[in-house]
């Protein structure tokens, strides 16, 4: 739809203005820095940063109802830069001109309602937001579109050149980073560090296919992250992990999309997210806060972060009810099927603490909760979800296990509606499904295969071994008809079919 077709009251706003009002805010010493350079931690105290807007209060000059109308009508635009996460340009990257924005189809992923079977099993109504339908098949594309657009903006302004982007990854970040960097080649080259044998073969194939330099490192993700931090502190590289505040900014789009999908009504809603490096839950909370402060939504939804008992530092931190006595302690992770969340020392932990406190204060009551689930529950709930029409990954199974726990323990009531983050596509983690079905998951995961969930193919062969067709040897017409009848009869018996 062309902008001149839009209603008169939103025509002045339908194409966003570019304004240079953003700055880095240190969560440690509160120092502020311009965003016109590559910066990942505070130069003064090495604490993580958030990107803030000097003129955030001016966003309130536009009434919330008008903002809703602006975003609803922007849905109809055919301008690529505004089709993805930058539909919410004023809240994500107002300093970035439309021509610097990268759009590969990310954002606005489908929200799919659970069927009656799943609702009954869980005890409340819920939806999956399928972020596995992003370009690289995970939610990481939201933050990567933002981070890469910010770098493209700096390149376009002549502020940086010959960029080498680097990240540590449990699989999904590397796929997203390599994909977006390849789109901008040769302006940007990418290198990724992965923990050796801790990433599925499907995830490993993605950065390789996009042409990234891939380095496998002994240890776990946290070890890779330390190497990347060392490299970014000593050399001129662009760090693309969620330590990069632009990543957080882009991932806030998840909240904006959820609000819009539910017609801006966040009352009696609960948003369930897995916690890995803690960037996503930080972004989700911050996004809802921004929309709440701007009057676009009039209620903050309940936020529930979920962790496996094999990687639960955030959950352990919040076990202490007295915030003055809480001490963050990294944990040594154990093997987890939710590999993307298998992080013992999340870099965004300071963001979680800062934003969760602000979120609860604005809500007027505790509205952020942290839940621990077992590996068995993660795998079983993932399989249960996918047997009922979803395409969720193991992290999505972690969310569903968390919702089941939350309902059972009255954290989420039966009258509330939950929105679960399926962070990646099920195909990325299909190896765990295969191992489960074959009853071959290593003992260290502490998962036993439930026969009710096991599903293996059945080989159906003819009684006569000479009556087997192949590419090399085709059967004659009569023999092939015998083969078809024989196999059909056997399948009919297995399916208990009755003749019509």
Radius of gyration, taken over Cα atoms and rounded to an integer in Å: 24 Å
- How many helix segments? 16
| Helical content band | 25-40%
**The number of domains:** 3
What does this structure look like?
By secondary structure, this protein is an alpha/beta fold. The chain folds into three domains: about 5-105 and about 140-245, Rossmann fold, CATH 3.40.50.1100; about 110-135 and about 250-445, 3-Layer(aba) Sandwich (Rossmann fold), CATH 3.40.50.1100; about 460-500, no CATH class. Helix content is about 35%, strand content about 15%. It is built from 16 helices and 13 strands. It has helices at about 65-75, 90, 115-120, 140-155, 170-185, 200-210, 220-235, 245-250, 255-260, 280-295, 315, 350-365, 375-385, 395-410, 430-435, 475-495; strands spanning about 20-25, 30-35, 50-55, 110-115, 125-130, 165-170, 190-195, 215, 240, 270-275, 300-310, 370-375, 415-420. A six-stranded mixed sheet has the order 4-5-13-10-11-12, sandwiched between helices. It has a four-stranded parallel sheet with strand order 8-7-6-9. Helix 5 (about 170-185) links the parallel strand 6 and strand 7. The chain is globular and about 80 Å long. The N and C termini lie far apart (about 50 Å).
């Amino acid at each position: 739809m062309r902008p001149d077709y839009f209603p008169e009251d939103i025509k002045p706003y339908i194409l966003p203005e570019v304004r240079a009002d953003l700055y880095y805010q240190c969560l440690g010493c509160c120092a502020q820095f311009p965003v016109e350079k590559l910066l990942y931690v505070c130069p003064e105290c090495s604490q993580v940063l958030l990107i803030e807007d000097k003129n955030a209060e001016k966003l309130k000059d536009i009434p919330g109802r008008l903002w809703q109308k602006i975003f609803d009508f922007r849905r109809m635009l055919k301008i690529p830069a505004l089709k993805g996460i930058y539909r919410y340009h004023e809240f994500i990257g107002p300093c970035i001109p439309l021509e610097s924005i990268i759009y590969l189809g990310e954002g606005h992923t489908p929200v799919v309602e659970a069927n009656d079977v799943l609702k009954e099993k869980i005890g409340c109504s819920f939806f999956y937001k399928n972020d596995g339908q992003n370009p690289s098949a995970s939610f990481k594309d939201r933050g990567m579109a933002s981070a890469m657009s910010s770098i493209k903006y700096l390149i376009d302004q002549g502020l940086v050149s010959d960029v080498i982007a680097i990240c540590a990854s449990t699989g999904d970040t590397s796929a997203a980073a390599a994909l977006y960097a390849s789109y901008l080649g040769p302006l940007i080259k990418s290198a990724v560090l992965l923990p050796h044998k801790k990433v599925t073969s499907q995830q490993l194939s993605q950065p390789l296919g996009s042409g990234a330099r891939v380095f496998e490192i002994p240890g776990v993700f946290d070890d890779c992250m330390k190497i990347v931090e060392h490299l970014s502190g000593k050399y001129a590289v662009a760090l693309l992990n969620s330590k990069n505040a632009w990543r957080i900014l882009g991932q806030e789009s998840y909240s904006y999309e959820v609000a819009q999908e539910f017609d801006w009504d966040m009352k009696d809603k609960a948003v369930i997210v897995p916690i890995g490096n803690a960037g996503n839950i930080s972004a989700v909370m911050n996004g809802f806060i921004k929309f709440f402060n701007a009057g676009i939504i009039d209620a903050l939804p309940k936020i529930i972060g979920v962790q496996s008992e094999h990687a639960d530092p955030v959950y352990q931190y919040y076990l202490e009810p007295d915030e003055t006595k809480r001490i963050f302690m990294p944990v040594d992770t154990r093997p987890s099927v939710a590999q993307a969340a298998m992080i013992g020392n999340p870099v965004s932990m300071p963001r979680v603490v800062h934003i969760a406190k602000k979120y609860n204060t604005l809500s007027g009551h505790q509205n952020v909760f942290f839940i621990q689930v077992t590996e068995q529950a993660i795998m079983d709930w993932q399989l249960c979800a996918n047997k009922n029409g979803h395409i969720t990954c193991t992290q999505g199974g972690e969310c569903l296990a968390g919702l089941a726990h939350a309902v059972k323990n009255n954290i989420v009531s039966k009258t509330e509606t939950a929105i679960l983050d399926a962070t990646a596509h099920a195909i990325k983690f299909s190896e765990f499904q295969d191992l489960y079905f074959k009853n071959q998951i290593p003992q260290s995961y502490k998962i036993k295969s439930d026969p009710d969930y096991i599903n293996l193919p059945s080989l159906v062969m003819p009684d006569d071994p000479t009556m087997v067709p192949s590419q090399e040897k085709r059967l004659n017409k009569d023999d092939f008809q015998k083969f078809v009848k024989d196999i059909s009869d056997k399948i009919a018996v297995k399916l208990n079919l009755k003749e019509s």
